[in-house]
UniProtKB/TrEMBL annotation:
Keywords: GTP-binding, Magnesium, Metal-binding, Nucleotide-binding
GO cellular component labels: mitochondrion
SUPFAM superfamilies named in the record: P-loop containing nucleoside triphosphate hydrolases
Entries under InterPro entries matching the protein: EngB_GTPase, G_ENGB_dom, GTP-bd, P-loop_NTPase
PROSITE patterns, sorted: G_ENGB
A Gene Ontology molecular function term of the record: metal ion binding
Organism expressing this protein natively: Cyprinus carpio
Pfam families on file: MMR_HSR1 (PF01926)
Superkingdom of origin organism: Eukaryota
Name of protein: EngB-type G domain-containing protein
Residues annotated as domain EngB-type G: 1-113
Length: 113
């Protein structure tokens, strides 16, 4: 069974760049779930951004994916260190708690450096 690690966060925090392991050519435009398999060892899941410019079907798409995903070992929620924690980040953390997901919140310093 594939080990899954997924990246979440508001749009433009660098989810796609991290999961492609290179800088995305289409920043901030991930509308669907993207999967990247790394050496048959694990799969990175690049999620669409949450918050004000999230896709309309975000909740349906993401919640149905995350629920009962047994092989999801970590959800990494990226927070823009320049903007700080936003309401949408707290909504996401609340969902991780309700779903009992193994998550970490990671501070992105890319807008500060
Ligand atoms: N300076 C800098 N810019 C980055 C870094 N990672 C991503 N970016 C830029 O930030 C923008 C948003 O990145 P993207 O990965 O599309 O964010 P996403 O919307 O969270 O998937 C793009 O223009 C990237 O080139 C980084 O580590 N440093
Ligand atoms: Mg993206």
């Amino acid at each position: 069974m594939f080990i899954l690690v997924c990246f979440m966060g508001r749009s433009n925090v660098g989810k796609s760049s991290l999961s492609y392991v290179r800088v995305s050519k289409t920043p901030g435009h991930t509308k669907k779930l993207n999967f990247f398999t790394v050496r048959k060892a694990f799969t990175l899941v690049d999620m669409p951004g949450y918050g004000h410019n999230a896709p309309r079907d975000f909740v349906e798409m993401v919640e149905s994916y995350l629920l009962d995903r047994q092989n999801l070992v970590r959800t990494i929620s990226l927070v823009d260190g320049g903007a700080g924690l936003q309401k949408a980040d707290l909504v996401a953390v609340d969902m991780f708690e309700v779903f009992n997901l193994p998550y970490v919140v990671s501070l992105s310093l890319m807008r500060l450096l």
